[in-house]
Known about the structure:
This protein has 145 residues and is of the alpha+beta class. It has a single domain, classed as Alpha-Beta Plaits, CATH 3.30.70.100. The protein is built from 4 helices and 4 strands; from the N terminus they run E-H-E-E-H-E-H-H. Strands 2-3-1-4 form a 4-stranded antiparallel beta sheet, with helices on both faces. Strand 2 and strand 3 form a beta hairpin.
Amino acid sequence: MAPSxxxxxxxxxxxxxxxxxxxxxESLDEIFRTSVTNNRRDGITxxxxxxxxxxxxxxxxxxxxxxxxMDRIRADVRHRELAVLDEWAIQNRLFTGWAMARPDPTPLxxxxxxxxxxxxxxxxxTGLLSGxxxxxxxLFRSGSW
Length: 145
Ligand SMILES: Cc1cc2nc3c(=O)[nH]c(=O)nc-3n(C[C@H](O)[C@H](O)[C@H](O)COP(=O)(O)O)c2cc1C
């Protein structure tokens, strides 16, 4: 029997244009604070990167929870032109332990940066952002952040 929609583990990746100036750290921090609180409650993991005036987010969790979160995110006036790059069923999470990681895209080379901001599909973007999140974690752990 197929697993119920609620038990299916799901990943969704989208990109949007930020209506918040990315120098406005207070407003950005507010998004992360809300996200971490709600995502812990809802069993959501993932990451949100802010390259070049855009938001690029990976969301993982029970399919119904991902859907409910996307309804809220789509209605949010702090961004526009939201495009879902891909969504698919997954066996395992890549962002375990991260209610919403904040990978820093600055170490990416030009090609990888273009993939994230313009050309990449969901799987490619997920791979790059999960690599960046691991790097961030390693730097934190080693105390060099
Ligand atoms: C780029 C972006 C990413 C967001 N990501 C999340 C998220 O991962 N989880 C979340 O709960 N809200 C997220 N939000 C906020 C939601 O749009 C919404 O404001 C919030 O979930 C409402 O939560 P509240 O009812 O607890 O205030 C995000 C908003 C933006 C603009």
